[in-house]
Specification:
Layout: E1 2-5, E2 17-26, E3 32-35, E4 53-56, H1 64-70, E5 78-83, H2 104-115, E6 124-134
EC number: 5.2.1.8
Keywords: Isomerase, Rotamase
Domain PPIase FKBP-type: 15-134
Length: 136
């Protein structure tokens, strides 16, 4: 875990809802990106944050590594995590726990790596930016 940018705001607590933007890469498969931060998302940020990824801390809606990464990150911070398969998607299925790629091509790239029975390394890399904390 590495902080690419240290935030200066509060940190989320269990039960808070967080709004994040994230990048996802398949490390073992040519570093293919399957989700990109800062891509165009419909609507303005105020009142229109439904296009960003949102989850409740402690709810187990997301993979363990993602949950762990958001703990202790300050508002405005960006954190990079390397995710070994055992802390990644259960049963190699992104429909069971988030975060889920928002584009078809991203879903296809991630699915290819996760479901591949061969020797492809299923280690993933995420950059997570904490945009907003909604208190419980």
């Amino acid at each position: 875990m590495q902080d690419l940018r240290v935030g200066s705001g509060p940190t989320p607590k269990i039960g808070d809802t967080v709004v994040v933007d994230w990048d996802g890469y398949t490390i073992g498969y040519y570093g293919r990106i399957f989700e990109a931060r800062n891509k165009t998302k419909g609507g303005s940020f105020e009142g229109g944050d439904k296009d960003f990824f949102k989850f409740r801390v402690g709810s187990q809606e997301v993979i363990p590594a993602f949950e762990e990464a958001i703990t202790g990150i300050a508002l405005g911070g960006i954190r990079r995590i390397i995710v070994p398969p055992e802390l990644g998607y259960p049963d190699y299925d992104y429909d069971k726990k988030g975060p889920r790629p928002t584009t078809f091509s991203g879903q296809r790239a991630l699915s290819f790596v996760l479901r591949n029975q061969g020797l492809i390394d299923k280690t993933l890399l995420f950059d997570i930016e904490l945009l907003k904390i909604i208190p419980n």
